[in-house]
Amino acid sequence: MTAIDSPLIADKPLPVTFPLVDTHTHFDAPVFDSDRQTQAQQAYKRGVRHLVLVGYLYRHFDRLYDTQQAFDVMPSSVVTDVAGQSDLYPKAHIALGLHPFYIEQHTEAHLTAMAKMMEEHRPLAVGEIGLDTYTDTMKQPEIFAKQQRFFNAQLDMAVTHQLPVMLHIRKAHAEALALLKAHDYDAHKLGGIAHSFSGGVQEAKAFVNLGFKLGVTGQVTNPNAKKLRRAIQAAVDSHGIGCLVIETDCPDMTPIMCQTSDNSQSALGQSPLDEWGDAPAHNRNVPANLSWVLLSLSELLDTSPAELARQLWQNSCDALQTKWTYPI
User: Fold this and answer.
1) CA 235 to chain centroid
2) Which end of the chain is more exposed for a tag (fewer CB within 10 A), N or C?
């Protein structure tokens, strides 16, 4: 049985906790309002030291900053409860972007306002941005042309502000690669992540050749995701482990061993107007689950979790143009 085919054992205990960066979350979403602080605490206990709150609709940009400010009251500092226990929380960072799946809700005014917000409150990255032809509607020429226009405009912003981008590419890899090659955005210099990578071997190598890291989610924990697992292995065979980062994409992409239902319905992408409204709460992904992505990836690549965690930390810093010190 190959590493690709080998399933993770759901009741296997988690490895020793290693420092991790969750490079892509929607932890600001209302589905976390009732227990965000508790989930942040659990994430820290599982090793998550930094997480990125990623934008997708202009009307929710303020929510990103509100969530970050709530973290700033509690993260990176010790909060002692009545029992004398010290609780720590990850540091939260922000990426601003207009998601292609919601293109019909975006306006030129949103691009202008986003550019102004970036000047006033410099984000960590621009994202998530890109191209998406998941539905027939998204394939319509006028809709896809608008996606391309907004993608280009946000790449322009990234170049202007010298920021990395987080790509959302779904069923449009060839078109996205062509657009990126024609643009003056240089991921080799600015960093960048092909978030929740879903392409095949050739697409994986192509994005890495352009300088992007491949974002690996809980999908890698599914032994049936053979196309994805082969693509990851091929990219690593060609470019080394330095081409990967990990993410939860919470509340989406729940690792298979953390699911409590056979319903694998994606929380994001059911309807551009409903966002996570119909998401099955019992399969909600949380930042603490990132350690399962690490474990599954270490098995797939036949690399120790300790070695992989340290490399992924450096990869995250490279992709996001940061210099976070690896905790000892």
Assistant:
1) 18
2) C
